[in-house]
Amino acid sequence: MGCVVSRFNSFITDRLLAGALDAIRRHGGSAEHVRIVRVPGSLELATAAKAMAASGKFDAVICLGAVIRGETDHYERVASGAASSIARIGPETGVPAIFGVLTCDELEQAINRAGAKNGNAGFQAAVAAIEMANVLKKLARE
Length: 142
What we know:
By secondary structure, the protein is an alpha/beta fold. The chain has helices at 10-26, 45-54, 75-93, 107-113, 121-141; strands at residues 2-6, 35-39, 61-68, 97-104. Helix 3 (75-93) links the parallel strand 3 (61-68) and strand 4.
């Protein structure tokens, strides 16, 4: 499993990563076998994730970031760009790239979605990655 994490808003993305690693452990995986790559921001997630997917070494790649409207005046472009570029990776490479990027209006929403009140979106992204990797393995055997 691969995981690409944005350093921008690391206060949030570190919590997302902790949630993702927790999910992997709870589903029988080893967090020590997860290849973690840090990138500057959410727009850079797809570039590293696509390289990981194309390497053939990963069953899935989790992309974790946080775009907060109050933090940038180009929120829509960053959120949309990250979403569309990550969405293309799976169909182009055959390796699922999971969108675990929070897109929030304010910091409090991001905190809540990174483990405070509304669960942890990183945990949920890792579960989706595990499920998709298993689906593709099953399809390959049929």
